[in-house]
Design goal:
Order of helices and strands: HHHHH
Largest sheet: none
Strand content: under 5%
Helix content: 55-70%
Number of strands: 0
Structural class: mainly alpha
């Protein structure tokens, strides 16, 4: 399975879930763009999140700290899911920032 196929599945899943949240798809995508921007501006953040020697709980704490204000719980839970399943999907996310 190609990276594009995998990312498409996550994009579809995120979009379906975002449509059912109180903030809606448009705001959810805006939040995701902001996260992708943060990761591009701070590559050490992605390195930390991808590091298999760092426990998931520490990664969750970092997500909570960084996204403390201005981000919805569904976005945080989506990022937790990616971390838990070791999916570096944001590297290939087809969203322009």
């Amino acid at each position: 399975m190609t990276k594009t196929t995998i990312v498409k599945r996550y994009v579809d899943g995120f979009a379906q879930r975002a449509e059912t949240t109180t903030i809606g798809l448009e705001q959810s995508l805006e939040e995701l763009k902001n996260v992708k921007y943060l990761i591009r501006q701070h590559p050490e953040l992605m390195a930390f999140l991808k590091n298999p020697t760092i426990p998931s709980q520490e990664k969750y704490r970092l997500i909570d700290l960084i996204l403390e204000e201005g981000f919805s719980p569904p976005l945080k839970h989506f990022l937790y899911y990616l971390i838990e399943n070791r999916k570096p999907v944001l590297n290939y996310w087809p969203i322009q920032v």
